[in-house]
Design goal:
By secondary structure, the protein is of the alpha+beta class. It contains 5 helices and 5 strands, in the order ααααβββββα. Bound molecules: zinc ion (2 copies).
């Protein structure tokens, strides 16, 4: 069983990203936090442990990860970009009560009325409601 630091290093190398200590910290954080954190939340959590890291470093690392396809993004509230270590197509369920964002699998349907001859490049499915935990 590989430890997290090894996994982080491998992922960076697989995506042709030069593994700096800061980049490793950002990626490691994303692998631990599956709640679709915003860049600000990621920065604050890393900064709490490593006060020397700058906001720009975290933001640059995130942009690079997205550019290289290592991390995906979604907009839960249409205001802030959220980052996700899961990059394959998946849907999101946003709980109105606890604000958690859950991943779910779905099959791409490609059945959209009125979009014949359009080229669809990405698709974002966001469902909203009350999660199982909050309904109990
Ligand atoms: Zn909930
Ligand atoms: Zn997700």
């Amino acid at each position: 069983m590989k430890n997290l630091a090894d996994k982080v290093l491998n992922l960076l190398e697989e995506h042709n990203i030069k593994p700096s200590y800061q980049r490793m910290q950002v990626l490691e954080y994303l692998m631990r936090d599956n709640t679709h954190p915003t860049a600000d939340v990621i920065y604050k959590n890393i900064h709490a442990k490593s006060p020397l890291i700058s906001k720009a470093t975290v933001y640059n690392a995130l942009n690079l990860f997205v550019e290289k396809g290592l991390v995906s993004t979604m907009m839960a509230d249409k205001l802030e970009v959220r980052y996700d270590i899961v990059t394959k197509a998946h849907g999101h369920f946003v709980c109105k009560k606890c604000k958690k964002i859950y991943n779910f699998d779905y099959n791409y349907s490609n059945q959209y009325a009125g979009l014949d001859d359009f080229e669809i490049e990405s698709e974002e499915i966001v469902l909203k409601g009350i999660c199982k935990q909050c309904r109990q």
